[in-house]
Design a protein that fits this description.
Elements: E1 8-12, E2 19-23, E3 29-33, E4 44-48, E5 56-63, E6 66-71, E7 78-84, H1 92-107, E8 114-120, H2 146-158, E9 160-162, E10 177-178, E11 185-186, E12 189-194, E13 201-207, E14 218-224, H3 248-267, E15 277-279
Parallel strand pairs: 7-8
Antiparallel strand pairs: 1-4, 2-3, 3-4, 5-6, 6-7, 8-12, 9-12, 10-11, 13-14, 14-15
Helix pairs in contact: 1-2
């Protein structure tokens, strides 16, 4: 996380059982959701950079394939869904159940919120976006499979855009998975954002240099959003002695000072606060 300056890191197939929230010795916060039968497979997790947990409003361990987290924003809140979908060869009923649960969680997110759905979707979308340009871009890889068709249907129903297909990169920065034999490579890990906030997504790119101990590569995204702390502060109302404005000298000095402050903002637009970029 530190090497790539990530604020939020999603993990698929964490293999931890149960669910919980822990803090590491280095200050990161880990939210995890796994199986309840002591079998160490599946599982999802969200890791927050030190300090980012102050923006966390709530989180929910849905099951071993879904976990959600909600963050406080200045202009709008952000809801994050970390996923681990069944493989394309899995039983149809298993895939149906996963997408039903995913849709149920998406429906709970207010429309004005920034929604991010990401993780190992085991879905190939391909590079043909004919009649689907609102959902996927021109920079996908391979040929669409059944999981890909399911993902497209979800995106169409809830106005989601697949970020990894929007940006022009070399294949090594788009292919997210490599088979153990080293021959098969696919783009099956994805990040979706609701169409309303599409312009807030600045880039999605694979980082092959990350040592993640997996046959999947790290996928990073830059999202422009300003978060704020959820901590409540006690506000003490400020009292102004407006009677002093009856004095002509005081009134003249006050008006002059007020004009100077507004003039300073006009002359120096860089003084006006701007949004910051958050990395995932």
């Amino acid at each position: 996380m530190r090497r790539y300056n990530l604020h939020i890191l999603g993990v698929s197939e964490s293999r931890w059982t149960g669910s919980g929230k822990i803090k590491t010795d280095s200050g990161e916060t880990v939210l995890y959701s796994g199986r309840n039968d002591n079998y160490h497979f599946e599982g999802v997790a969200i890791i927050l950079k030190r300090g980012t947990e102050k923006r966390l409003m709530e989180w929910k361990p849905v099951n071993s394939r879904l976990i959600t987290a909600k963050f406080k924003g200045v202009h709008t809140n952000m809801t994050l869904l970390q996923c681990y979908a069944p493989t394309n060869d899995s039983d149809e009923a298993m895939k149906d159940t996963f997408y039903e649960q995913l849709q149920a969680e998406v429906r709970l997110v207010p429309r004005h919120n920034l929604l991010v759905v990401m993780g190992d979707l085991n879905a190939k979308l391909g590079n043909n976006n004919t009649d689907m340009d609102r959902i996927i871009g021109k920079h996908g890889c391979g040929t669409i499979n059944d999981n890909g068709e399911r993902l497209v249907e979800l995106c169409a129903a809830y106005n989601l855009v697949v970020g990894g297909t929007l940006f022009s990169h070399q294949d090594i920065h788009k292919l997210t998975w490599c088979s153990p034999n080293g021959r098969d490579k696919n783009q099956i890990d994805h990040l979706m954002i609701n169409g309303t906030w599409r312009r807030s997504l600045l880039d999605v790119k694979v980082k092959r240099g990350a040592d993640v101990g997996s046959d999947h590569h790290l996928v990073t995204a830059n999202i422009k959003m300003k978060l704020r702390s959820t901590g409540r502060k006690t506000l003490v109302p400020t009292r102004y002695d407006i009677e002093k404005l009856q004095d002509h000298n005081v009134k003249t000095a006050f008006i002059l000072q007020l004009k100077n402050k507004f003039q300073a903002l006009t002359d120096n637009p860089d003084m006006i606060p701007t949004e910051t970029t958050i990395g995932f």
